[in-house]
Write the structure tokens for this entry.
Amino acid sequence: MNNAAERQAPTGSAPLSHAELDFVLTAQIAVAWAGEGGEEPRLGWWRSDLTSEFGGEDLFRRLLPNTWRWATLQGAREAARRRDAEIRSRDHDPDRILSLYRLGLEADERLDERLQDLKSSGIEPVRALPGLDGMITEPWKLERFAAWLETQGTEPHVSAPIGRRLKGDPPEALTPLVRNLLAALTPLGAEYPLPHYRRGK
């Protein structure tokens, strides 16, 4: 089947749906937003200030009047992705690591495609991804973000040289995989803890 919406997930599980992709994009964007520092200090996990009023927003409003909201969130997601990749690269076998911003080639490609589709749709981010409403639309509160992470569940993990390694094998389906990675972000600290699974060879 050639329909992109029916392509298989990288683990060979059921086809990735728009609902799954939207959930993961919501998660990635929410964490990317929370991880920024700058004018509106949040967690400060990456050196970007793209989603604050007088940071990236001011620039993108002038450069991209129709898509500036998407552009700021996309930029924050890219900053998070680069930090995630930088930490993963310290591992002796980084290709075996699954993390929030590296979910496998197929999933990563589908997520980028879906983000571009949403960006070009003309729909505002909080309407396209309703899970962001009340998160990125409100002033930063650590307690609210931590409470949202706690709704994802709890997942046992151990300390590893590059971050928090989740125990066991990664779930085959994308949604529980991402929920587990989100849950392992807590407890929140001063550095991005890189929750991750190590895939078998």
About this structure: The helical segments are 18-34, 56-63, 68-88, 105-120, 125-128, 142-150, 174-183. The chain has one domain: 16-198. The first strand starts at residue 97 and ends at 99. The two ends are 29 Å apart (CA to CA).
